[in-house]
Amino acid sequence: MKAGRKQWIGLAVLVLPVLLISVDLHVLSYALPFISASLAPSSSQLLWIIDIYPFILAGLLLPMGTLGDRIGRRRLLMAGAAAFGAASAIAAFSADAGTLIATRALLGIGGATLMPSTLSLIRNMFHDDGQRRVAISIWTAAFAGGAMLGPLMGGALLEHFWWGSVFLVNLPVMALLLVLAPLLLPESRDPRPGRFDVLSVALSLAAILPAIYGVQHLAEDGFGPLPVLAIAAGLALGVAFVRRQRVLPEPMLDVRLFGSRAFSAAIGANTLGVFAMVGSSLFTTQYLQMVMGARPFVAGLYALPSAGMATLTAALAPVLVRKVRPGLVVGAGLLIGASGFALLARLDAGGQAVPLIVGIMLMAGGIALALTVSSDLIIAAAPPERAGSVAGLSQVATEFGGALGICLLGSIGAAVYRDHLAGAGAPAPALDTLGAALDVAGRLPRPAGDALAAAARDAFTQGQHYAMITAAAGLYLMAVLAPILLRSVRRADQPERRSGQHAMR
């Protein structure tokens, strides 16, 4: 049965939280220099200000998706909107780095209810394969819209208000969602929900957090017993989680889905694409503001071409999969994205606007194309009554990829930055972040301060080089593997691909 006008209007409501989360992510990245100046966080605290939100999000997305299947996806969406708005108001007035980290964790809890609810509602509102692909392309394009609005909104706010204003923009959007959702969105839930397994929830969260903590500190501080033990503990708990799902009569996650090579490949492409894209934003925003010296609003304008390209490729995805096998479309998108990262790796401390714009256009456009197709493949595998858990899994992959991108690429960049700057004889306070180094340089006499600032910018671009090469290498590898692993998925216009379950075999 095809969706009608009410479902398409409802899709516009579902785009609101997607747009907001994308705006929130990009706004925060532009606010980091102001947060650093106001709250003076250490390099570790700065990473946690960024990381804690996607970490908590990744740990709770799967259980929240399953909870939505049981209590109702619209109900969970509205509860999450209220929680997200309240946490945003608290975060805006944080007085120190510790408080901001704590409130970002609360935002993660609220945000974990939003994304799986939107995807699972789309799965239940659009049963026709073609309409669902268009709906998911619009859903994906909303992220690109957030990438466009976020820097512009953030730049305008940061030039006229304090950094806390970037959190307050969440409030009117959440209020609008709370008003419109009961009017335009249908309630849906699993008609035969099983028991909600609290132990599975605890295991999913306990598996992710120590693993991410260990990876971050291993990359940042080098080999040591604590990060190794944390990673080992996370992996062990992850194995325990999977084993428990296999024996439960009503598992939180149907791990049998991973028996499909195509399903696993779609999850892998999603994770790696977001890993590279989100991790790169940590560098490009600092490059614009601290290397090129762009004001926040001007820096936001640089994001417009890439956001436009991402929106265009997301819209083209449903058209392409009618003519070309989805595996080839995913591979082509990842290849284009990797080429963008290769170009970004060539940026130097002199400030190169054209290679930066072209690089982020290729990166954003290619990855958006791959994510649109892979997201549809993932959600199509879900029966409507279990859409929440599979949507939660899809978003776990997305948020886990983003968290790892910031963690690993950020840590690689930070390690190279510190090593390079320490070799130049810089004082210890300058070794934490580029912002800290520029602050120290501003307090030194003119010749010494200029020399330190130049050395810090050069060290930062060296770190950026290695991080972008790492991202490009991962995407090139997946671009080769995707057409092979997804070769069983037929074009959308072929009659054999009439359902998501059949296509994923």
How is this structure best summarized?
The protein is mostly helical and 505 residues long. It has helices at residues 5-39, 43-71, 73-92, 97-111, 114-125, 129-160, 165-168, 170-184, 198-221, 225-247, 261-291, 296-302, 304-320, 326-344, 353-380, 387-423, 434-442, 446-485, 500-503. Helix 1 (5-39) runs antiparallel to helix 8, helix 3 (73-92) runs antiparallel to helix 5 (114-125) and helix 14 (326-344) runs antiparallel to helix 18.
What structural keywords apply?
single chain, 505 residues, mainly alpha, globular, disordered C terminus
Principal-axis shape equals globular
In total, how many beta strands? 0
Q: Give the low-confidence spans.
A: 496-505
Main pleated sheet: none
> What integer is the average pLDDT?
80
User: How large, in whole angstroms, is the Cα Rg?
Assistant: 22 Å
- The percent range for helix content is over 70%
Distance, first to last CA: 23 Å
Order of helices and strands: HHHHHHHHHHHHHHHHHHH
Verbal overview:
- The C terminus is likely disordered.
- The two termini are 23 Å apart.
- The chain has 505 residues and is mainly alpha-helical.
- The relative contact order is 0.14.
- Helix 14 runs antiparallel to helix 18 and helix 16 packs antiparallel against helix 18.
What is the secondary structure topology, with strand pairs?
Layout: H1 5-39, H2 43-71, H3 73-92, H4 97-111, H5 114-125, H6 129-160, H7 165-168, H8 170-184, H9 198-221, H10 225-247, H11 261-291, H12 296-302, H13 304-320, H14 326-344, H15 353-380, H16 387-423, H17 434-442, H18 446-485, H19 500-503
Helix pairs in contact: 1-5, 1-6, 1-8, 1-11, 2-3, 2-4, 2-5, 2-9, 2-16, 3-4, 3-5, 3-8, 5-6, 5-16, 6-12, 6-13, 6-15, 9-10, 9-16, 11-15, 11-16, 11-18, 13-15, 14-15, 14-18, 16-18, 17-18
